[in-house]
Amino acid sequence: MLLQLTNVRKEYRLGDQMVAALDGVNFTLSSGEFVAIMGPSGSGKSTLLHIMSFLDPPSSGSIFFEGREIKNFSEKELARLRNQAIGFVFQQFNLLPRLSAWENVALPLMYANVERQEQFTRAKTLLELVGLGERINNTRAQLSGGQQQRVAIARALVNKPRILFADEPTGNLDSKSGAEIMDILTKLNSQGNTIVMVTHERDIAAYSNRQVMLRDGQIVSDRKKRRTKV
Amino acid sequence: MNLRNTLKTALNALITNKLRSLLTMLGVIIGVASVILLTAIGNGLQAYITQQFESLGANTVMVMPGDSYDKNETFSQGAFAAYLTNKLRLEHAREIGRLHSIVSEVIPEYESSAEVVYGKTKKSVGVQSSTPAYQIVRDIKISAGRFYNESESDTGKQVLVLGSSIATDLFGEKNPVGRKILVNNQTFKVIGVAAEKGGGLSGLSVDSQIFIPIETAFKLYNTTSVTSITAKVRSKDRIAAAEVAIEQALLRRLNAEDFSVVDMKQILNSVNQILGVLTLGLGGIAAISLVVGGIGIMNIMLVSVTERTREIGLRKALGATPTMILQQFLIEASFLSVLGGMIGVAIAFLLTLVIRQFFPAVVTLEAVFLAFGISALIGIIFGVYPARRASLLSPIEALRSE
Q: In chain B, which residues touch A (CB < 8 A)?
């Protein structure tokens, strides 16, 4: 078992009321899966993804990563997990505007204390993998939305993570660029990468092999499927 | 992440965002420069006043008409009335002059103003009249011609010495010595020009006065009274003795309420009182400018770092620890604060050079260190504090901030 969530709750303060974004979620993830988390907006799917990827702490409940509970992890150990164990692809790409494509990809390597020459080589290899070998020196302004998201995927992969998370990876893209991104993710999964993705589009979910439905902060269905799109 | 990487990240962030770096630095530059400049102007003012009073001579004793100077070390309100019933005469100065075992020079003075005319140029000037010893007691240097002598003084010859700026005003580049000018419609011969004393705030300067013999002034103004008598005491520690001797000598000829003996120590006490208030005021100015500069720096640092909360969230999501974030922003803030501070000091020095053309501003080392130190400290604290706060948020909380 790669990742396990037991009875995870996440509450927000809204005015003087507490609102539960996640209301007792149990979930296990095995190596090699490609999971699509679905549900209407406000169902808590993004919150779930953030908690699974250690970007936001749960209000209560337990998270086990490779058998170790992360509740007692220090900030430093959590940073190490974010750096080494996971890769995260944001809906808004989140590239630093003034850095070149390869410098953006190399950011996690910098925090992993990799030598600059090695950073460049690995960033370049990954940018070639996502089809941007010609644009390693472009800054964000010189890249289209689809290209930016491919840089973000390269950045998420650069430390060879155990799990790749993606929050609406095609949400800000036209359908053609979206399809290209999904092709890359599918290819990565077939090479053995574990992927968890949030989407509200059936079309996009169809690339996955397991679909989890969320409603009002609870999992209402969890089905393994054969991939219907390739 | 090692320090070299952090250093590179921080400097890279500064270089790639030149405008933001420049604006942030500008806050520090203006803060530092304004504090240094304001204190430089204040210190210059203080130094100027002190110097002017010291140049009056600390080892002199003055005799003023009337009971104008009471023993509470401040001028009483009757000062003006005392001048109207002035009983001080030239003979009293001679009386004091007999005390030559204790007094080296005695000068009676009569001060007034006059209109001088040369050709088509007309000027209003201050008139200082006395005896030739005036030149020694008041330290007047002569740049052309000579000062008036005993015989001219005793006989009331219509000769005069021009202050340097009035000489230029009337004669321009021409040599005034030997020429005739009109003083209140009387013809006077210019016999000398005083060297520039300088440093004067315009209007008050001795450079725009004329010097004439006292008997000449008596004729010109139809009077026999003197405005004051100044005695130079042979040594500083005999000032008190001189005061007593002068008082006794004068009491033989005048009533006690007709004159008062004042030493410069009393005047210096008043001056020191003024200077004390001035120093306090300057401290206030420096403090206010430090606070204003500091708030400017604080604001721009807070804004520019708070604006980067999302960047901090992203860096954390990619594996940066709070310590790494802190190091990066500490380096950035230190670099901007120190470089901005140095530029601010340099600008303040340059501006001081310009100001010195017309005002004696003095940059002190304390002001430089204070301005630089406080500004850099504020810059670093408020450059790091919001980054620290953001680095303790979860990556998602930081990324969500607007």
A: 1-2, 5, 9, 12, 16-17, 310-311, 314-324, 394-397, 399
